[in-house]
Amino acid sequence: MPVAIITGASKGLGRALAEALAARGWDLVLDARTAGVLQEAADGVRTYGTRVTALPGDVTDAGHRAELVAAAWRLGGLDLLVSNASALGAKPLVRLEALPAEGLRRALEVNVVAALGLVQEALPLLRASGAGTVITVSSDAAAEAYETWGGYGASKAALDHLAAVLGAEEPGQRVWAVDPGDMATDLYAAAVPDDGDPRPAPVSVVPGFLRLLDERPASGRYAVPALLEGQR
């Protein structure tokens, strides 16, 4: 069975992706910071009959990243790495003039430095798989200038560029930066707590990710709304 690591997998998009992959027979290594919520998610994913290893921890911890990759190795290797864990930098979001330096550092550490560290740890297994794939979860804030989204958007823009360079350096792999579009997630609620506009559930964007896995286009940046439009 193919094996995937998904960070930030206790809820939202991470959990929705985990359930979709489990339904397809993937074995999974799941990460999140809150042990109880992660265990609940893992128990739900196991109902699909797949093997699931749940490892609570912080992706900024190099030791935790090594544990995630070692767990994938014990399941048989690694075919897919999904860097979904994200930090906003400020809750709620603020204008750049008020963005605390420690908040920006946290966003960069989680969204960029940790994502690269996990790729570095995982590359030997991804190369050995013969069809290794890296997905970095991006945002439209990485490409558009939205007030108050500067710190988070800057971190995602940096992650997009790392993914682009990784794709150039690893032609044998697929490396996709994926903008999922609008979703109703805890992260968004924390970012903009006063926004009452309804947003789609994370499960609604999963078919876009599955299309990438099925069709395996060239490494690059993809937006889920465009991928879903192409399926209609």
From TrEMBL:
Organism superkingdom: Bacteria
InterPro entries xrefs: NAD(P)-bd_dom_sf, Sc_DH/Rdtase_CS, SDR_fam
Keywords: Oxidoreductase
PROSITE patterns: ADH_SHORT
Family, per entry: Belongs to the short-chain dehydrogenases/reductases (SDR) family.
Name of the featured protein: SDR family NAD(P)-dependent oxidoreductase
Source organism per UniProt: Streptomyces spinosisporus
